Amino acid sequence: MTRTSLLALPVSLALSLAPSDMLPVASAQSADTGAPLPAATASPKVYVFPMDGQMGTDISEPIFKTLIEDVKKQKPDIVVLRLKSADVDRINHLRNDNPNEFGLVNEITTYRDMVKSVHDELRDIPQVMWVEDAVGVSGLAALAWQAMYMKSDARLGGLNQFKDMVEAQWQDADVRSKMVAAWTGIMKGLVQLGRHPDTLADAMIFAERTLSVNFEGRGAKWVGDTSGTWVVDSSEERAVRFEAPVAEEILLSDGTADTLDDLVFLLGYREYTKVDTGEKLAKQYTDDWRKGMKNVLEWMEEASQTEDDIAGLGRRKSFYEKVLAALKAFPVIEKRREIAGNGISRQAIEGALDDIKKDIQRQRDAEKQGRQGGGGGGGGGRGLGGGGMRPGR
């Protein structure tokens, strides 16, 4: 834990804030949990709940369960969910986005359950979403919290490939229509958790939807076309995207904070104690599963170089057993495009291992009978993607 004083703030932030006697009252209600921000302490414990990396692997159910249990153990006064997960690079002309790192939209049901678990299991702790960068399905997750702040250079954007992805998976028009409705309902459910309207959700999900906003007193009313006072999105070719300054001006974001110090100050506290165990747990989890995936690809490549004799099959079996252990330890590995594209899955590896055992037994039986090579031609799983072919082909 790190105790931090906010008495020395950046000049730019200090000038933008009201005098100290006008700071937000610490007993204000947390916007989405209903839990009050702690007023009994001048220095709250702030738990940073990281959501960094790819949606569906780095940001996934296993690490959420671990972090939720850690929050319960640490007993913080405030949970800050820090989100950094963008499908789209900032430098458009380089075209260097990595498709393997795009958020896995087909995991949307899991994301809903993950988000609800934070809302439900930590309902007595005030929760604040802090967006560092969120474009893609992560943008929908960000809106699951009404109390939301953004970094000054943060983006908040929706999906751009949803329609194409759905049409590619379901050719039958009736089935496709039903699946679009089902997935859209789940996605809207995320946005609704943050008490945002369906109009905003539609613009985040469907590239062809436009969006504008009218202002009513200190509130904003979203309009699903360009007739509003402030046109947010007039493009019919991509989903809506908000830059941090605009998000704050149109009242989508509660404020702009570049550091945790800034954010806690905006919440009304001059001092706080940071709980960083969550950041350590999340980093270790990501490092471990990504190392596991790297090993899997290497083991599959080595397995592809083995011979079909008993010795070679034994080595192949050893590689496949290590692959299977890694897939069991980190199920998220199977969700990666480069893994699935090579036909690597627990089921496929288990089937290949079974074939290898049978091939080894056939060859041993043949040797006992004095025959050469009996049963060795089956290959023992050699045709498995990543076994018979090099990863990435």
Which key features would you list for this structure?
about 400 residues; alpha/beta; 3-stranded antiparallel β-sheet; 11 strands; globular; disordered C terminus
Q: Can you describe this structure?
A:
The chain is an alpha/beta fold and 393 residues long. Helices cover 42% and strands 15% of the residues. The chain has 13 helices and 11 strands. Strands 1, 2, 3, 4, 5, 6, 10 and 11 form an 8-stranded mixed β-sheet that branches. It has a 3-stranded antiparallel β-sheet with strand order 8-7-9. A hairpin with a 2-residue loop joins strand 7 and strand 8. It starts with a strand and ends in a 25-residue tail after the last helix. The relative contact order is 0.12.
Our estimate of the beta-strand percent is: 15-25%
Intertermini distance: 47 Å
Specify the structural class. alpha/beta
Helix proportion of residues, in percent? 40-55%
Low-confidence stretches: 7-31, 385-393
Q: Outline of this structure?
A:
This protein has 13 helices and eleven strands. It has helices at 11-16, 61-74, 108-121, 137-142, 162-169, 173-193, 198-205, 244-249, 260-267, 277-303, 310-329, 337-340, 346-368; strands at residues 2-5, 45-52, 78-86, 127-135, 148-150, 155-157, 211-216, 219-223, 230-233, 241-243, 271-275.
